[in-house]
């Protein structure tokens, strides 16, 4: 079979815990960035909120998939950049557009997953994920602010102004 290209293997084999190397590296980078933000000299509620956003974004990028097509985060970003960077032309009267016949594609066999300790479900990369992450960060900021005595200080300042 001259000119035959082997099928593209999309994902690396999963490790024994059910998570691939790509996911571990990206999630670990997010957690390390969160720890560095936490160790910085920022205001305590602010650094808690930023650390939650960094860790959540790392987990979202690592385990997130497009709910409609199942693409990874970097594939989604690549497609968006290619879409906006393409040559624009009018469809009417164009005759040099390449056409691809989708009926020639062969259906792929489902992959057998190796036995693992955990079975990870992909996270849907949608606006709701971003909203949930921001809500969690806001909750962390609010709890840190209240726990650090922020409410007591504000109440004391409010009562001293009223008297």
Written description of the protein model:
It is built from five helices and two strands, in the order H-H-E-H-E-H-H. With 163 residues, the chain is mostly helical. It has a domain at 21-85 and 120-162. Strand 1 (64-65), helix 3 (73-85) and strand 2 form a beta-alpha-beta unit. Helix 2 runs antiparallel to helix 4 (127-147). The longest helix is centred in the last third of the chain and has 21 residues, at 127-147. The chain starts with 20 loop residues before the first helix and ends with a helix. The model has no long low-confidence stretch (mean pLDDT 78).
Short overview:
This protein is mainly α and 163 residues long. The chain contains five helices and two strands; from the N terminus they run ααβαβαα. 52% of the residues lie in helices and 2% in strands.
Q: What structural class do you assign from the helix and strand content?
A: mainly alpha
Tally of helical runs: 5
Query: N- to C-terminal separation?
Result: 91 Å
Low-confidence stretches: none
**What does the largest sheet look like?**
2 strands, parallel
Number of strands: 2
Q: What is the helix content?
A: 40-55%
The spatial strand order of the largest sheet comes to 1-2
Q: What letter string, H or E per element, gives the SSE order?
A: HHEHEHH
Q: Globular, elongated, flat, extended or rod-shaped: what is the shape? A: elongated
**Binned strand content:** under 5%
């Amino acid at each position: 079979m001259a000119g035959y290209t082997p099928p593209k293997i999309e994902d690396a084999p999963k490790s024994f815990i059910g998570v691939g190397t790509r996911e571990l590296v990206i999630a670990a980078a997010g957690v390390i960035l969160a720890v560095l933000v936490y160790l910085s000299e920022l205001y305590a509620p602010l650094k808690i909120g930023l650390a939650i956003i960094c860790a959540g974004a790392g987990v979202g990028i690592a385990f997130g998939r497009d709910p409609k097509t199942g693409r990874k985060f970097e594939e989604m970003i690549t497609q968006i950049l290619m879409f906006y960077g393409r040559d624009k032309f009018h469809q009417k009267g164009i005759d040099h557009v390449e056409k691809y016949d989708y009926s020639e594609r062969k259906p792929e066999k489902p992959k057998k997953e190796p036995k693992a300790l955990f079975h990870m479900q992909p996270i849907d990369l949608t606006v709701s994920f971003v909203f949930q992450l921001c809500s969690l960060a806001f909750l962390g900021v609010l709890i840190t602010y209240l726990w650090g005595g922020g409410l007591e200080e504000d109440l004391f300042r409010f009562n001293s102004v009223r008297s």
